[in-house]
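job 3f2a | input accepted
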Amino acid sequence: MKNILILGQSSYIGKELNRKLQKNSNYKVFLLSLRGDSWREYDFSSFDVVVNLVGLAHVKETKENKNKYFEINRDLAFDAGLKAKNEGVTQFIFMSSMSVYGINQGIIDKNSRINPNSHYGKSKYEAEKILSEIEDDSFKVLILRPPMVYGLNSKGNYAKLHSFSKKTFIFPNYKNKRSMIHIDKLCNFIIEIIDEGKRGTFHPQDDDYVCTSIMVEKIASEYGRKLWMSKLFNPIIYVLINVLKIKSFTKIFGDLVYDKNLK
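job 3f2a | predicted structure (263 res):
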C-alpha cells in the first residue's frame, strides 16, 4: 500500500484525484490545505508520495498581485517539497503548466524553448527549477506540464466555454487544434506515475487534438441545445488571431499543441 498526501484539498484536480484513488485499496490518501502555517507542523514522514496541486491561477494578473503568484506557486511549492524531502518522502509530484513555454499559438516539441511571459508561467517555471535542485537518488521530483484540463466542474477557459455554450445560439465554425486533457485521463496518468515511481518532466495530453468549435457544439448538445455553427465570422477571427494577435481570441481559436512525440 502507498500512502499519498495531496496538497490542495479544495483544488479541482485534487478532489478528482482523491476520488479515483479512494476506489483502490492499494492507496491510503490524505488531503491537506496549505492555507496559513499550520500545515508546517503536519508530519509528512508516513507518506510515500506528495502531490502538490496548490496554485494560484485564473486570476487576472496585475502588478499588485505579482508577488502573490510567486509566493503561492513558487515559494510555497518549494517549502512543501523541502519538507517532504527532509521527512523521508520518496516522490514529490509538482503540477506545473503549459504556460512555462510562453506561447499562445504553435507547436511545442522537445526543442521548444522555455520562455514564460506571465506571472503564472514564470512562477511555475521558477518552482520547477528550485524543486529540481533538491532532487537526489532518494527523493524523486516529477513535474507535470498539462495543457488545458477539462471536465465536469473544471475552471478556467473550459468553464467559460461551458457557460457560453448554454447561453448562445450561434458559434463560429472555425477549425483549429488544441492540446487538452480530460480530468479522468490526467488523474489516471498521475496514478500511473505513482505506481511506477517515475521522475522527470512530462506533458500529458489527450490522444487527439481538440477543435474548440466541435467541443462547444458537443457541450451544448449535452444540454439539449442546438447551436448554429457558422463560418460567417471566420475571416474576422483570422484577422484577430493572425494580424492583430488579440490574446483572448488566440487562446480560444488559435492552434496550440504539444507534439505527439513529446513524452
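job 3f2a | The two ends are 27 Å apart (CA to CA).
job 3f2a | closed
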